[in-house]
Amino acid sequence: MVQQRETLLEVKNLHSGFTIDGDFYNAVQDVSFDIKEKEVVCVVGESGCGKSVMSLSLMQLLPKENAKIASGEVLLNGMDIVPKSQAEMNKIRGKDMAMIFQEPMTALNPVLTIGFQLNEVLYNHTGIKKREATQKSVELLKQVGISRPESIMDEYPHQLSGGMRQRIMIAMAIAMEPKLLIADEPTTALDVTIQAQILELLKDIQERKNMSILLITHDLGVVAELADRVVVMYAGEVIEQSDVDSLFYDPKHPYTEALLSSIPRLEEKVETLNTIGGVVPSLKNMPEVGCRFADRCPKASDHCTEITPKLADVGGGHYAKCLLYEECYPTESEGVRR
Ligand SMILES: Nc1ncnc2c1ncn2[C@@H]1O[C@H](COP(=O)(O)OP(=O)(O)OP(=O)(O)O)[C@@H](O)[C@H]1O
Description:
- The protein is α/β, with parallel strands linked by helices.
- It has helices spanning 51-59, 86-92, 104-107, 114-125, 130-143, 149-152, 162-174, 192-209, 220-226, 244-249, 254-261; strands at residues 7-20, 23-36, 40-44, 67-76, 79-80, 97-100, 180-184, 212-216, 229-234, 237-243, 312-313, 319-320.
- The strands form 2 sheets. It has an 8-stranded mixed sheet with strand order 6-7-8-3-9-10-12-11, sandwiched between helices. The protein has a 4-stranded antiparallel sheet with strand order 2-1-4-5.
- The longest helix is centred in the middle third of the chain and has 18 residues, at 192-209.
- The two termini are 41 Å apart.
- The structure holds adenosine-5'-triphosphate.
């Protein structure tokens, strides 16, 4: 019998975005998905599709000056964290959910030693004393595959390679054993062999610690390697969602098909990469009605700019948002507008 996993994170109708020239624009539009315990969910999509804004919204780390969550719920173990204050979020971040970023140098403080920064995470969440914190930090560095942890404790971020810095970030993220790790393009800034090592480390830690991971990436090779389920985003919206095999072998949305066909295959002699023509619309230029991919879609019909599809189950828990499928037509009461 397949054991039902509990839902760890549930995102419901999330809208978030930016105020630009006095007007508010959603960069994340009505996004809903969930993550079960011990599950790896990958979020994919081209640059500018809202992946980072979505993940920063979950952590409540959007820039305060011009960005906010406009509506929606983010349920962590059933509790909505959207209304939480920053002080409350400071307790939740690190302990219940943690995040690693593309460029660890921006997240690490350049003038503090690695040991100081690691110990700080432990002090923030526990009443631990210095000697014990230092022991724990050294242990964490070992867990992330750092071979001379005692001496690294006294070094500064700039003395380390990009791969080492990302390992430090992972050590900081797992220090309090959070159940959810959000990783936003964690390997993009690294060279290829190091990328593979960091992904291997994430996978290993996820299994050892029984964590769930939300992995943001535009690299479908990474998705194939790590994901249990995949959420495809386009222009701020979820346009497809399914388990990883179903997505790779039977993609439903023309955007996902296009993304998949842009991966070069070893057996094919590729002269040029098959890229998707056109660009993701900017926030100010989002179509108000219809499918946001319509102007780039090879399968678009007139309907596609007139009727807004809804995300619907098009078979066996595979969700798509495309008028190629009967299920995605809005009902009369849902209308054609967003
Ligand atoms: N600080 C900001 N102010 C205004 N608009 C922003 C800001 N940051 C992002 N955006 C816009 O929000 C939209 C979503 O951007 P986001 O960074 O989430 O995309 P992404 O899918 O994560 O792309 P990438 O892979 O390049 O990080 C884009 O249209 C982007 O231009």
